[in-house]
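Hey,

Quick one before I head out. I ran the complex with adenosine-5'-diphosphate overnight. Inputs first:
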Amino acid sequence: MTFLQFYREYSNRLDTLNKTIHNLKDSSLSSVTRSLWNLDDQQLVLQIDSMLKVPDIVAVRILDEEGRLYYEAKSSSNEKDNDKYATSAPLIVKNHGISRKIGDLKIYATRQNIERALIDNVLFFLLTQFIKTVVISMIIVMVIRFYLTKHIEQMSQFMKRFDFSSTAENKLVINRQNRHRDEVDDLIESLNTFVEKLSEANRLKNETILEQEKEIQIQKAASINQARLASLGEMAASIAHEINNPLTVLAFSGKKLEQLAESDEIDNGRLIHFTQMINKTIQRMCKTIEGLKKLGRDAEGDQMLDVKVHELVSNVLDLCQVSLATKGITVKTNYNNINENKLINCREVQITQILVNLLNNSVDVVKDLNEPWVVIETREIKNTLHFSIIDCGPGIPENIETKIFQPFFTTKEVGEGTGLGLSISAQMAREHKGRLFVDRSVEHTKMTLELPFN
Ligand SMILES: Nc1ncnc2c1ncn2[C@@H]1O[C@H](COP(=O)(O)OP(=O)(O)O)[C@@H](O)[C@H]1O
Ligand SMILES: [Mg+2]
């Protein structure tokens, strides 16, 4: 619309200019003719100068009857465009009824001023539009910021800082003075309801997790106890043997002592022999019972102490030897490069528990084989101690190699295996900064407990 207006204004001004030229021509034609006829140059100059003073008129020319330039006047400001707009009229004198052309009057005008004014107007219009747009945009931004963005930022800050673990009531409050309720209020309310529901759900979930964790802890404790009881039960049988044997010795020695006492001549040598036998047997029984008492308890809180490697192995043997022997299993020890006084810093009871677990597993596998055997081996490798139990069994399939260390994984019949022995043992090994692994360095089944020396 505005540009249409500009165009109309432009063409109006051009019309006006056109009229101006023609009026000028009409009004000055007779006087100019007269001056030229009278050859009154002074008057002619005055007349033409006054014509040049009219706005937009840039040149006036007088041509003689043959069309040659007789006189010319130009406004200094414009030369280039003076032929753009022109009008011409013949100068005619009437003498004794005869008309005679004595020359031509040519008036030149320029459209430059009109065009410049048009450009100025357009530029001014564009500039004011631009400023208007900028100002209005700024006002809109400020209004949006005041009524919306500011609050959205507060909401986003609130969401970012929201702490689900905090039990304190956490609500978004935005102070919006004296206003009617609108969508922003709705949004704040929904946000608060959402957060409230989420917190509640989170709280319930945490409670459930805590309860489940408690349950798991209880189950874990129960399982560990069960595993310990199972291995104890297993050992109960061997204890019976372990105690039965010395009891036989005691009974035999007692009987011999009785016979000696009844005989007339007391043989002091034999007396001492049987008394010593009784004492030694009682000592051995005490040791066995001591070992069993230790093995049955939770050693997690025990101190790490320096223990002789050889002693550790012989304690394990004390606990299992008879049970192995009654099953016809040959047991050998091989200390390799570990000398008699070599110490290892550990919780003795836990290490014994691990080795007994490994031995029990081997016994389970080999007891029904022909000429079964197990070897208890120690070896020092790069500042670590390897305790290994090797058996003559068929081995552990590679596809269950990692699974056997998982709790409750067992390939044994229900009631025979708990599937906890290796997982508990591996855990205890880790507590010693060591590890328990299937050692594939030999052709037989070899389980190795690796412990660091320091
Ligand atoms: N010396 C071994 N020879 C063959 N398989 C073994 C041996 N030691 C352990 N395993 C396998 O690892 C499984 C898990 O052992 P463990 O954790 O002690 O549980 P459990 O003895 O109660 O089954 C056993 O069921 C058995 O399949
Ligand atoms: Mg086991």
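The pocket of adenosine-5'-diphosphate (ligand 1) is lined by residues 357, 361-362, 365, 391, 393, 396, 404, 409-412, 417-423, 445 (CB under 6 Å).

Talk tomorrow,
K.
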